[in-house]
Design a protein that fits this description.
The complex is a heterodimer. Helices cover 43% and strands 17% of the residues of chain A. Chain A is of the alpha/beta class. In chain A, 53% of the residues are buried. Chain B has a single domain, classed as ABC transporter involved in vitamin B12 uptake, BtuC, CATH 1.10.3470. Classes of the chains: A alpha/beta, B mainly alpha.
């Protein structure tokens, strides 16, 4: 009896030894540095949840090329110093294949060089153009260019005959980079910036600066460039001052929560954003429509009570790009980097991505669509 | 500057100012009975707003606010009983670190319960775009709610401390703890009561300001810094001083916008805090002699 048990055990051990190599195929480690908490949590929260959802789905299907994905999410709370130490940790200790994030432009700029020196692909979910211009060979970004957003807004202003504008930007990397682009591109469109203010992301009431800008009779329109909840306060305070000036927002407005926070004051705002927000209204033949609806459905079923935002979409795009690149390049940082540069016409939530050695954003101005808010919902602009 | 602009700045200043004053008075109530600064004061404001928002689908607005204030008071009492009551003559430093810990703990609990999104109560009257004209300036009706509620709260608190026997007992503890014990007052209960009071005040302020400023799990820290500045400016423990100092700081912040770029607004209030701490640590309205006799 005893011998039989021993034999069986030996047999089981032998069997398990034979089986293990295939079951334990090397997992692919993907790092993510996201502002899950803190003032930029509007970005990092949906981004982290999107990544978790996608990795879970990919692993259920058996992973990529037979390897499962290990996602390591680090919460930077929007703090560049934390992002720096997490980036070093992910690259040197965890030896991840690639890093998704950070959520904000300031953090991305803080770790751009670390990723480059560590030869680890970085797929940033932040928008500022400086991230990919000048190009660093390992650094990519998924949101649309802020210069394109500026051009969309200025084009519309030209159409509406508005020339003198007041710029209000928040004090994040996104706000700063946007304000710089607004100033730089203004002469091209004959736009004059007559007021230029920066506000804090944690601001709770902006009646005073709004009063100051309102007192300047030259102002014909407002551009409110921000990615923080304070942008809704600006909009509210403008309308509360009884001022019916046209307001343009940046693509940082692409979370319905911002529109909800501004309530009735959000009606009629104009802003450029990716088509994710109006996926259901797109024509059936639009190349993005199917995947946009798919992402919306999956996200909103998994995270009940939440509505997709373009920010979660940026993480979706980063993961989609990474998955496509891993299929080509396998679990190798350099090969994955090269594979990303070779991706063409890959539909993402932000638009169709076509990368090259000189273009690490892969999107054109067509990725944007002007939108507005009507009855508390995002719809294509001009409203039909 | 036109009158219209002046009035507009003034109202902006009064709005910020009354909120700062309420937070500062919350600091003062606890300071007076315990001699410590409760750095979790801002979290009471956050809890008030957040709880009211969560109760709103179940209850009408006034009841939701009342329930939120009540619940926050209970939380205030629990915090005091769990973390502070059992300490035997703790040092000031230890108490400060404990309250900072409570503040972080509350914030983390809030982010787990409510998530990182901003939320807001609806406007009590009208909506986001309704305005009232006053001397050519236009303000949201909610501003009047904030100013009115804060004013009434300060008045009631004053009456409570001056005329009610419990209020007098609390003041007795603040004036001389040993003598109060000899008179049969239990100072530990008074400390719990002071946490309950300041939690309630903070929560009510958190509800009335929520439509204007939104509520978010991490709003407490910023408010605590401003409230602390105001408390110091008005003289720690001096609630009348806190009201004047709050309005003063609010007005300085609002009017500073017309002279320096907006980005400097917070720098101005922090600079004022530093100057006061260097030059007049007992505050504008506090007495230097009294301050020397205090432990902190």
């Amino acid at each position: 009896m005893k011998t039989m048990v021993t034999k069986m055990m030996m047999g089981a051990t032998a069997l398990s030894l034979m089986v293990t190599p295939t079951v334990w195929a090397e997992n692919i480690k993907v790092g993510a540095i996201l502002a899950v908490t803190g003032p930029a949590s509007f970005l990092g929260g949906p981004e982290a949840r999107t990544l978790e959802m996608m990795v879970e789905a990919a692993n259920v299907k058996g992973g990529i090329n037979g390897s499962k994905i290990d996602l390591i999410v680090k919460d930077s709370a929007g703090n560049p110093e934390k992002a720096v130490s997490f980036a070093k940790q992910l690259i040197e200790e965890d030896k991840v294949l690639a890093i998704i994030g950070p959520s904000s432009s300031g953090e991305t700029m803080a770790i751009k060089k670390i990723a480059e020196d560590g030869k680890t692909p970085l797929l940033s979910c932040a928008a500022a153009e400086v991230i990919v211009n000048p190009v660093a060979s390992f650094v990519f970004k998924t949101p649309q260019k802020d210069s394109d957003a500026v051009k969309m807004i200025y084009k519309e202003m030209n159409k509406l005959g508005l020339a003198n504008v007041a710029v209000l930007a928040d004090n994040t990397g996104f706000g700063k980079a946007g304000a710089e682009q607004l100033v730089k591109i203004a002469p091209e469109f004959g736009v004059k910036i007559v007021e230029n203010e920066v506000y804090n992301t944690t601001e709770s009431d902006l009646t005073a600066p709004v009063a100051k800008i309102k007192a300047n009779k030259d102002v014909q329109a407002i551009i409110n460039w921000s990615v923080s909840p304070a942008q809704s306060i600006v909009v509210k305070n403008i309308r509360q001052a009884g001022w019916n000036v046209p307001i343009f927002q940046s693509h940082g407005f692409g979370n319905i929560k911002f529109a909800e926070a501004a309530g009735a004051a959000a009606e009629g705002l104009i802003f450029p954003a990716g088509r994710l927000l109006i996926a259901a209204d797109l024509p059936a033949e639009h190349p993005q429509k199917a995947m946009l609806l798919d992402y919306t459905k999956n996200y909103e079923t998994k995270y009940k009570g939440e509505i997709v935002s373009t920010f979660g979409g940026h993480a979706y795009d980063a993961m989609t790009i990474l998955e496509a690149a891993i299929k080509v390049g396998g679990n190798d940082r350099e090969k994955v980097r090269t594979a990303i540069e070779g991706l063409q016409n890959l539909p993402g939530t932000a638009g169709l991505f076509s990368f090259s050695a000189t273009d690490h954003n892969g999107l054109t101005i067509d990725a944007f669509q002007l939108m507005t808010v009507k009855n508390g919902k995002f719809i294509a602009y001009p409203a039909k | 500057m036109t009158t219209e602009l002046f009035v507009q700045y003034l109202f902006a200043g009064i709005t910020y100012g009354s909120i700062y004053a309420i937070v500062a008075i919350g600091f003062n109530i606890i300071y007076n009975t315990t001699g410590i600064i409760n750095f979790a004061q801002g979290e009471f404001v956050m809890l008030g707003g957040m709880i009211a928002i969560s109760l709103l689908p179940l209850l009408p607005l006034p009841l939701a606010i009342a329930a939120a204030v009540g619940l926050t008071m209970i939380i205030g009492a629990l915090i005091e009983m769990i973390f502070i009551r059992w300490l035997k003559s703790p040092s000031v430093l230890r108490m400060i670190i404990i309250t900072i810990g409570i503040s972080i703990l509350t914030r983390e609990a809030a982010v787990h319960i409510w998530g990182e999104n901003i939320r807001a109560l609806p406007y009590f009257v009208g909506n986001e775009i309704s305005t009232i004209g006053i001397l050519g300036a236009r303000i949201s009706p909610q501003v009047l709610w904030v100013v009115g509620v804060c004013g009434v709260m300060v008045a009631i608190l004053h009456l409570f401390f001056q005329t009610s026997s419990v209020g007098r007992e609390m003041r007795a503890c603040a004036a001389n703890r040993m003598a109060a014990i000899l008179c049969g007052i239990n100072p530990r209960n008074m400390v719990t009561l002071s946490f309950v009071l300041s939690a309630g005040m903070g929560a009510l302020a958190g509800c009335v300001m929520s439509p204007i400023t939104y509520s978010q799990y991490d709003m407490g820290t910023g408010l605590a810094i401003k409230g602390f500045t105001v408390a110091i400016l008005g003289g720690l423990g001096n609630s009348g001083g806190a009201v004047v100092a709050g309005l003063l700081l609010g007005a300085i912040e609002a009017f500073s916008v017309s002279v320096v770029p907006l980005a400097f607004k917070d720098a101005i209030s922090i600079a004022i805090l530093l100057v006061i701490l260097f030059v007049r640590p007992h505050g504008i309205f506090g007495s230097g002699e009294a301050a020397r006799l205090k432990a902190f």
